[in-house]
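Hi support team,

I submitted a single chain yesterday and got back a structure, but I'm not sure I'm reading the token output correctly. Could someone confirm the output below corresponds to the sequence I sent? I've pasted both exactly as they appear in my results page.

Thanks,
R.
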Amino acid sequence: MAFELPALPYTTAALAARGMCQETLELHHGKHHQAYVTALNGFVASNAALAGKSLDEIVLLANGKADMAPVFNNAGQHWNHMLFWNNMSATGGGIPARLEAKLVEDFGSVQAFKDAFKTAATTQFGSGWAWLVLAPDGKLKCTKTPNGSNPLATGEGRALLGCDVWEHSYYLDFRNRRPDYVQNWLDNLANYEAISL
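Hi R., thanks for writing in. Yes, this is the structure output for that exact sequence:
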């Protein structure tokens, strides 16, 4: 069965008032993410070793193998974006009490978490992602990955939040001001309500 581009959980205009314009969503979801899905399906169709495998299985199978780098990049980006769309909301930014308590326990404060996440996002050189993960030791941690990699591939923990810091995620809205995009994402777009600990 072929992989499919998931529908957005909101309209393409829904996040405009929160800092992500309709054109950004149309291009990012409809063009960029669709291209990853299309390429991934092409790789699966031409490689019997990938047939019938889940997305997670393909990411893990292709990870670290030079001859499968294109498969990994497209599978990873599909995986990342499926989380990314659900990590945003037109009513984002509010942190539920249970998550707030865990952030305070593991980072010292909500602001310290936001600072750590922003540092991960802004120090990722070039294309990549910033993540809030539930690490194997049960602690929340902020991390980053280059290009299409993710915490599934690195084994750093279960991804709870993933922020895309490829320029196509923010250039129409914030030009080259990645720190402003990330701060806005954390304060106004992040769907903390969807996080399950």
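A quick pointer for reading it: The chain is about 50% helix and 10% strand. Let us know if anything else looks off.

Best,
Support desk
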